[in-house]
Amino acid sequence: MGNLEAHLEGFAAGALWFYGALVLLEALLELRGNTHFYRLKDTLCSIATGLAYTGVQVLMRGVFFGAMVLASQFAPWQLETTPLTFVLCYLAVDFAFYWHHRVLHEVRLGWAAHIVHHSSTQYNLGATALRQSVVEALYEPWFYLPVALLGFEPLAVMLALQVNITYMFWPHTQHIKRLPRWFEAVFVTPSHHRVHHASNLAYLDKNYGGTLIIWDKLFGTFAEEREAPAFGVLTPIRSANPWTVTTASWRALGRDLAAAQGLPARLGVLLRPPGWAPNGEGLTTRQMQAAGVLKAGAPLA
Questions:
Q1: N or C: which end of the chain has fewer CB atoms below 10 A?
Q2: CB distance 116 to 133 below 8 Å
Q3: C-beta neighbour count of 44 within 10 angstroms
């Protein structure tokens, strides 16, 4: 596939134009339709957290590539990057993303970072899609090392991940309702991802896929959009201050760790699903769905 480094740099630059064009288009639709999908303070907060995340991500890029190169040395074989092997690499990256994303939701330590992305009650391209936690940029690289262990070239893995991240941008919109049935059956769409960002009981911890929705269907985490989504989280962060939005969940985690008695309880607070409590009084998403009860937590900020 030629110079992978040039492909990676070229695609990353092109992605910025893609993002900008979609945001501009949605902004024009917002002005024309008066849909109120944006709020100024919320948008500024999202842009600020997105810029901070991007800065850390850039700083981590060298570490990521070095770790990829090291991991690839232990692969049982080395695969030259061709159109076919790149498609296989992309499938492996998308599969890794599914589990990466699921861990961020279903492990408290992951959710403490990822809640930033879900904290807005708005859902749009110009803000929600950009809202990220700086801590996630520290987590991300390690979930994709197994792909390098399969023998794919490190730069091919990084390019596949960049394409995957770019694909995940456009479903953050309310302007596209449903796409053709065959597309909805295979790929992540705005309808699928609106479910993922909703706090409706039936929608919690659903639709983790990046490009392909088939992983959710295979592993039992798929939900179709049937009722109107209520965007946001059960433990809201009622602030437009980027620092507060980024740190509120970590302060709550620290309080729960301080209150837990003994190492097993503290490990449970860190590694069990959000909502779990050592005293048994908490409710995880799965427990709420089994009981048919939606329990909202106190605002984090």
A1: N
A2: yes
A3: 13
CA nearest neighbour of 295 among 230, 248, 234? 234
pLDDT digits (tens, 9 = 90+) for 170-181: 999 999 999 999
Q: Taking Cα atoms as reference points, which of 43, 247, 209 lies closest to residue 126?
A: 43
DSSP state of 79: B
Distance in angstroms (rounded) separating the CA atoms of residues 129 and 198:
14
Contact between 101 and 210 (Cβ < 8 Å): yes
d(CA 107, CA 218): 20
Q: Give the burial string for 115-129 (b: 16+ CB within 10 Å, else e).
A: bbbbbbbbbbbbbbb
pLDDT digit string, tens, across residues 282-294: 889 999 999 998 8
Cα separations in angstroms, 2 against 82, 83, 155, 278: 9, 11, 12, 54
